[in-house]
Specification:
By secondary structure, the chain is of the alpha+beta class. The chain contains 3 helices and 6 strands; from the N terminus they run E-E-E-E-H-E-H-H-E. Helix 2 runs antiparallel to helix 3.
Length: 119
């Protein structure tokens, strides 16, 4: 499981549909954050607290075992939701996932890029 901030979309060489693929992207064109837990072990938490609300809010297709790309426009909707969500206690592993996702989403807005979410 990983999330990737796309730093320079023009340097990404391959796409799967509209999703940037970073397997052979040049250094400096993205930043990766590997998550050290298996989302399948936390299926209910992820579905209820992340996948369902973010898919609805952002018009995304995030799902466990799949990959999606949140554009800068989608990140603009995601940031306020994450900020509000982080005002309340978050269960593990979302307590470590949400802050990093928030950081990446804010930076994606500034850069005009997006965030790849691969659960």
């Amino acid at each position: 499981m990983r999330i990737e901030l796309i730093i320079d979309l023009s340097r990404i060489l391959h796409f799967y549909g509209d999703i940037p693929e970073t397997f052979d992207a040049p250094a400096g064109s993205y930043e990766r954050h590997e998550l050290t837990f298996d989302p399948d072990e936390y299926e209910d938490i992820f579905d209820y607290d992340f996948v369902e609300p973010v898919d609805k809010l952002c018009g995304a297709l995030i799902d466990r075992g799949d990959v999606d790309y949140l554009t800068a426009n989608q990140c603009e909707r995601l940031v306020p939701w994450l900020e509000k969500r982080l005002e309340r206690p978050c269960p593990y592993p979302l307590d470590t996932f949400y802050p990093k996702l928030l950081e990446f989403a804010r930076r994606a807005i500034e850069l005009g890029t997006g965030v790849v979410v691969d659960l």
